Amino acid sequence: MASPMCREIVASGRRAAAAAWGRTMSTASWWSHVEPAAKDPILGVTEAFLADPSPDKVNVGVGAYRDDNGKPVVLNCVREAERRIAGNLNMEYLPMGGSIKMIEEALKLAYGDDSELIKDKRIASVQALSGTGACRLFADFQRRFLPDSQIYIPLPTWANHHNIWRDAHVPQRTFHYYHPETKGLDFAAMMDDIKNAPNGSFFLLHACAHNPTGVDPTEEQWREISYQFKVKNHFPFFDMAYQGFATGDPERDAKAIRIFLEDGHMIGCAQSFAKNMGLYGQRVGCLSILCENEIQAVAVKSQLQQIARPMYSNPPIHGALVVSIILSDPQLKSLWLEEVKGMADRIIGMRTALRENIEKLGSNMSWEHITNQIGMFCYSGLTPEQVDRLTSDFHIYLTRNGRISMAGVTTGNVGYLANAIHQVTQ
């Protein structure tokens, strides 16, 4: 017969095991209802590309610049800015609103070097986590201070726009933008939607190089859009992810914003330095909201900072230093303008080469849209089934909506890509 001490040891062990089992079961039940999230369509393309052993594989799905050898690029102006930063500055927190110097330079880029709006301190602005973070801050600001409002988003748009305003709990509507048959702007339907939207509606507009279509309104069309916004008292929120990267000229790429400012609109603007400076992983952006006066701007900025506080508290410092050094130094800014024009020109050149190569193969379709569109992306008009054939038969990877990243097109693969497109569209 076991001693009392032995019985107590056994009982203690059983209690410990039962407690551990109970904890395990309880913990497991907390997350048992969680299903795997759907894969991001763009990141999924990259994963499939990397897993493909074919030596002929081509990735035209990635939304990041590549040189003519298909390699990532660090701009020389960025390397010089980082050389100046190294060892010279501490790593203390930035204010909640971010780098004041970076914000000053970003505003001059968007609103103009001699903007009276900047001089009058009418712009509430904060550093943001690239363009995505700027959009999210604005969406939360919209929800908090105009809870009954909604946002009109172009059809199509960058897929993450829908996620941003959805998670900020702002109701969404869409407005016509792209015309599938012409592969251009559906201007008449767009204007009808603007006219028919309730007065005082929020609209998301791409300032330049519309993602994913590469289709932008002309200057005259922008003026008509601005006029109709004035009639309807709509609020324009510009997402400007490609300033300088679209045409090679930052002033030209900001033309839509300048038109709306000339017409006296209150605007919001999300800026990103991912594409035009190659600072993708640094997540450098700026959110600005034009206000009636300096007092209102101070109030709005304070609220934007309060929204940012529980999200990430303070924005990162390194990329902000890179941007502020480049834009505030005349020599480095001149070098940046030269380099960003070089990137834009390479993409424009690849558009011409892709169109010419397809046409030389005797295609009976029109490919003018390749050169009519602008920016990193070409909305090719390929169907999902044709895209699937490009991948299965030719090891060419892109999103199923037919969006081609022109940054992934090089002199080495443009002929192969053109032939593949010709084959699947016959």
What does this structure look like?
- This protein has 426 residues and is an alpha/beta fold.
- The chain has 2 domains: 41-73 and 337-424, Aspartate Aminotransferase, domain 1 (Alpha-Beta Complex); 94-328, Type I PLP-dependent aspartate aminotransferase-like (Major domain) (Aspartate Aminotransferase, domain 2, 3-Layer(aba) Sandwich).
- 51% of the residues lie in helices and 13% in strands.
- The protein has 18 helices and 13 strands.
- It has helices at residues 4-31, 41-51, 76-85, 100-111, 116-119, 130-145, 159-167, 187-196, 219-232, 250-253, 255-262, 274-277, 294-311, 318-328, 330-360, 368-372, 384-394, 414-424; strands at 58-59, 123-129, 151-155, 172-176, 178-179, 184-185, 202-206, 235-240, 268-272, 284-290, 377-379, 396-397, 403-405.
- Strands 2-10-9-8-7-3-4 form a 7-stranded mixed beta sheet. It has a two-stranded parallel sheet with strand order 1-12.
- Strand 5 and strand 6 form a beta hairpin.
- Helix 3 packs antiparallel against helix 15, helix 9 (219-232) packs across helix 11 (255-262) and helix 14 (318-328) crosses helix 15.
- The radius of gyration is 26 Å and the shape is globular.
- Keywords: Aminotransferase, Pyridoxal phosphate, Transferase.
- Its EC number is 2.6.1.1.
- One of its GO terms (molecular function) is pyridoxal phosphate binding.
- Its cofactor is pyridoxal 5'-phosphate.
- Belongs to the class-I pyridoxal-phosphate-dependent aminotransferase family.
